[in-house]
Input
Amino acid sequence: MKPLNYSPAHKLDSYAELVCSNSLRSDNIENASGLLKEELRRMDSLIMRCAQANKLPAGGALAVDRMGFSEAVTREINSHPNISVIIEEVSELPNEGITIIATGPLTSDSLSDCISRLTGKESLYFYDAAAPIVTYDSINMDLAFRATRYGKGTDDYINCPMNEEQYRIFHQELVKAETVPQKVFEKTILFSGCMPVESMASSGYDTLRFGPLKPVGLIDPNTGKEPYAVVQLRQDNREGTLYNIVGFQTHLRWPEQKRVFGLIPGLEDAQFERYGVMHRNTYINSPTLLDASYRMISNNKVYFAGQITGVEGYIESASSGLVAGINAARQCLGQNTLIFPRDTAIGSLASYVSGGAAGKFQPMNASFGLIQSPNIRIKSKKDRARFKSEKALEQIDIINRQ
Output
């Protein structure tokens, strides 16, 4: 509906603007996120093509230039001969034809009401958070240093070390900092993968030191010792002028972010290009509503895709869109539904969303725990992951040959 109407999180006219430098995560196929990306590459995913074209240095992760990526996705879609872009807010679904509902992380109230009527279920929701971005020039590199853990790979991360006293003060101020008040009728449900930094701090004094601020494998060149805690920053744009504070998704008020995060050694005079924000993500109770093609069980002309299905993460959302898009096209052509095997990352997510969740349904990232286990016993976790990945990619290659 942009640029006629914007959600609270959207600012640009271009598509795919909510990607951040670490949205795509690990690029190693021994990691479930890396396997999912390789499967999508082999399926010729537009998102993966645009990501590769705007890749930034990030060690073993796939990070992208946010603006370049957004512009590439916009250009690909707007120039495609089979796509007509209609700019308007959708408040009602069409009465006929095949429809894919992929409303993104912030569904408008009017469309949410429409979806609630369609599904007949109470909408679920959780809160997602985004980390702040600072300029490279404003980082005090006399205190901060470049390094990767245990010296592995290239020094793509900037590290801000803390001693015990600095961490104590930072933790104290973070816990008591003022957050943005929530609406009284909304209950906060925090997804663990996007837990705000202040929520982690409130759960225990050492929680951050065993999470995003863990110092393990890092040596401060100024002291020759492992710090008590370390805040890491990752490059956020191609030019290297912007850096994302890793793991610092937050719901703090903007003046509080500047005050509290300014207590981090190296960020005393940091210039914030984007403050952290927190916004509502809507998702449906998919296990009761969708099959493994992301199509509604009760209405075979309606598909859902993206985070609204309960897949969590940028690349997972792209995966659901690819499956829904392929099957919508096959339905138009009178072809059979394509269900991706459960021993692929793409298929395991579809299986989870369509009924594979145990207990109360919650959003889920790609995980080797979701992928159907091999019939042989493999003791090594790394070898087991490698074996699962190789078998998954064999299945994707078979699908591509069909």
Q: What stands out?
A: The domain at 130-280 is CATH 2.40.30.260 (Elongation Factor Tu (Ef-tu); domain 3). The chain has a mean pLDDT of 89.
